[in-house]
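Hi F.,

I've been meaning to write this up properly since the lab meeting, where we talked about keeping a consistent format for the predictions we share between groups. The idea is simple: the sequence comes first, exactly as it goes in, then the structure tokens exactly as they come out, then a line or two of notes. No screenshots and no reformatting. I'm using this chain as the first example so we have something concrete to point to.
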Amino acid sequence: MEIKVTSQTENKLFDRKEIYLDVSYKGNATPSKESMSQEICKKLSLNPALTVVTKITQAFGNNSSEVLVYSYIKKETMAHIERIQEKKEEKQPGDNANPGTTAEKKDKGKAEPAEKEAKKEDKAQV
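Output, unedited:
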């Protein structure tokens, strides 16, 4: 993986460095944010715990990407600004949050027309 720094600015408001990179690589797929973050941290001597790869832009068919990296100075600032997404628990095929709800809805839908017809007959008799 070949990394070239396009521009680097210091954002004092957010207490971070914003680094724009051109990254070229070999292979069929664009590398993931985690693998790209590891390589960038190694080559630019950044702290991996304080570095976030925010954007990877690639033109179709190219083996190079434009990458935006945020390198924070303090862990507290990073925790305040960045949202860390936790992986969602995978559902088992047989697990439903509300078992039987679809069957109840089907039964309820069938019962309603019958009740309406009964009410109409009662009104007609009066």
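Notes:
Helices lie at 33-44, 75-81, 101-125.
The mean pLDDT is 79.

If this format works for you, I'll send the rest the same way.

G.
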